[in-house]
Amino acid sequence: MRQISQHGEWSSRLAFILAATGSAVGLGNIWKFPYIAGENGGGAFVLIYLLCILIIGIPIMMAEIMLGRRGRQSPINSMRTLATEAKASRYWSWLGWLGVIAGFLILSYYSVIAGWAMAYVVRVASGVFEGATADGVSHIFATFVADPEKLLAWHSLFMIVTMLVVARGVKGLERTVKFLMPALLAILILLVGYAMERGAFEEGVSFLFKADFTKMTSEGVLTAMGHAFFTLSLGMGAIMVYGSYLPSKVSIGSTTMLIGLADTVVALLAGLAIFPIVFANSMEPASGPGLIFQTLPIAFGHMAYGSIFGTLFFILLVFAAWSSSISLIEPAVAWLVENKKMSRMRSCIWAGLVTWGVGIGTVLSFNLTADVTFFGKTFFDILDYLTANIMLPLGGVCIAVFAGWVMSEEDSVKELSLKRQWLYKTWLFLVKFISPLAVVIVFLKSIDVI
Ligand code: PFF
Ligand code: NA
């Protein structure tokens, strides 16, 4: 077994926590969580999502980090090595492939949305939102997404910046994340403060936390579960690849808890900032992917120094997206470097070009091809559904099954080195039975089999 990865190692536990938190906290928390919670009726959806984080997400994250650290290579090669070591089928390396493809597909649309955030940095800074009404803000958003050339330009810029950083190696990211997270948290708290003062705060809180299960569909449950994987960056090798750079003495359990907590706090704060604005302005919670771009500018347009805070907020959002997007493409790049013997630079150019190209489909799905649908879904909807609701949970279950059933207990005990026996037993029970069963049941229910 390799002692350290050929791509190097994190300098410390903190460095890993920062990078993994950077991967987890992103558009998923601030852009996606609020709008899917809005579309699925709030409270009950949020509760199911939190439950999924706790009993599926956390144990699988531990498993994924563990497999990465033992494999010490790109997910594809790590899985192959670990399977050989456990005398299991070589087909386990398919799991790595699934992840590489999911990463490509997610990044292709993630970059388009990150491009929106970039565009909003400029818009908010220009002061167009000062004193704006809800209608005005919605109009600005609608005009923006109707323009394919603009979306394409921002998408391209975001891809270039991302690939430049990946080309230099991901381990330079520690410093950025270290200042990013606290700053993002501070602005979110400021926004929640605004929502308390000027928004319909109680209505927002009760929408988010009052569970009404009659509003839940099995489709909604699948979305909540899929989002637990998406938001924690699980099921596709992103966290596995970061785990492969993790020094062997770091405790996986407590590190995972910290990352999960940070991710959840950011998502809930985003929800608490957004929904009071939605209700105070008689807007529709189910406004879809434009939700934050149609609500937060209202807050920035009316608070003191709003343009400054707003600019800062969208800059931070771009950085958060960027530290996530790096981890989306890292499994692919690590594999190209290992197996195709390409330089890191060349690997980045190829991976970046393909992702950028697929992203054009998403750009167009908000304007020119908005009416081209398949089962009522646009190109963007399909990519989102396929990756978050199917590929990530599927990858996650495979990781759980591998960690719980294929890897020997002797190895997993050693690798996790949890302080208490009952903690290990709980983890093992969750990855062996609960997570796989839960995912399978939710899958089957969503296609009406049970
Ligand atoms: N966790 C990221 C977010 O919430 O924005 C998105 C993501 C990053 C998903 C990396 C998957 C991944 F591998
Ligand atoms: Na997240």
Automatic annotation (TrEMBL):
Annotated InterPro entries: Na/ntran_symport (IPR000175), SNS_sf (IPR037272), YocR/YhdH-like (IPR047218)
Sorted keywords for this record are:
Membrane, Symport, Transmembrane, Transmembrane helix, Transport
- Name where it's found: Membrane
Gene Ontology cellular component terms for the protein in this record: membrane
Example of a GO MF term: symporter activity
Membrane topology field: Multi-pass membrane protein
Transmembrane segments annotated in the record for this chain: 12-31, 43-67, 88-110, 151-167, 179-196, 224-245, 257-279, 299-322, 348-366, 386-406, 427-447
What's the family?
Belongs to the sodium:neurotransmitter symporter (SNF) (TC 2.A.22) family.
Q: Which PANTHER family does this one have?
A: TRANSPORTER (PTHR42948:SF1)
| Protein name, entry field | Transporter
Task: Please report the organism this UniProt entry assigns to the protein.
Answer: Cycloclasticus zancles 78-ME
